[in-house]
């Protein structure tokens, strides 16, 4: 939804192979189908990613490195605000993990 969906729509309109990294399979698949229908680009894919979980970030990065020949653009757009103080199963504060640690780790894992 929001900025991430708009960016994905624009990339797909440019005929780019576009991976939507979403926490929710249902919402992510709906976005994929909407973008495919709007652009005619069948190369819009869904992969699950929860940036508050470093294990999820590592699994996502491994899959991208294994499945994709190259990665030209990475848009880190995940973010939360206003959540009550919560500690993730990995012992991290959830907002900090989601907004900073997860995207930082993802970027570094995907660098060549």
Automatic annotation (TrEMBL):
Q: Does the keyword Oxidoreductase apply?
A: yes
What SUPFAM superfamilies does UniProt report for this protein, alphabetically? NAD(P)-binding Rossmann-fold domains
In this entry, which stretches build a coiled coil? none
Q: Name one Pfam family in it.
A: adh_short
Q: Which GO terms describe its molecular function?
A: oxidoreductase activity
Where does the source fall among the domains of life? Eukaryota
Q: Report the family membership.
A: Belongs to the short-chain dehydrogenases/reductases (SDR) family.
Q: Which PANTHER family match?
A: PHOSPHATIDYLINOSITOL-GLYCAN BIOSYNTHESIS CLASS F PROTEIN-RELATED, RETINOL DEHYDROGENASE 11-LIKE
What's this protein's name? RDH12 dehydrogenase
